[in-house]
User: Fold this.
Amino acid sequence: MYSHVQFGSVVVKEEIFMKKLPNTLALLPAAALLFSPVAFADVGQVLNSVSLYGNLNGISNDGGRTTGGLGVKGSWWQNNVLFSANYHHDFGSSFAVPDRTGGANTGVNVKLGYLVPLGSSLAVGPYLAYQYQRWTVNGPDSAAFHETNNAIGGGGMMALGLGPVTLTGNVGYLDGVSATYSYTQGGYKDAFTTAKGSDNVLQVGAQANLQIAGPVFAFTGFKWDRYMNHGAINVLQGNVGLGYGF
Assistant:
């Protein structure tokens, strides 16, 4: 009697299980899609992209301060040749000058590199670079002091794919080739030179890119520039933005 009831219970439970099994199996693809991370196809989705970002810029020594702004950048990588351009503008002075009323920073960085793919998830290689930097400090009575620096050099860079995250980074050294110094007030302008000359630049940068959906990705990164000539200033930049791969 007991064995018959137990067997009948097992049969009923088995029938219920078999009825529910097709519905359960139908949910598995949706669950896998929901809980599996979206992965970049390869590092080229980040190296071939355009991006818009918010920027924080600060000088960590020499009477520096923090300011912020916006930037845009893009890169193109085909047949191992990489070209990238980055422009940012900050709406404030990075120097804590007495009687300061405002200012601005403008930066441009252009790279031409040769990145060799080592599989689909890693590319490394050297690059040549040009960097332009302009600092402006505004003072009372519409006065303003401007300093620019031009530097050319090179370094090494890499891109590493880790599933939904692609990491990029570079280390470089640029030699200062020219600098300008000027003072303006109203219609008056005075350009002058100093013994300081142009600055050599040691720079390190890194960025983490997270794919959101399809070609759209979010990123955050930092850039450290050490301007060196008769003393040094450390310029730190942090950014957060969105990119579109193509």
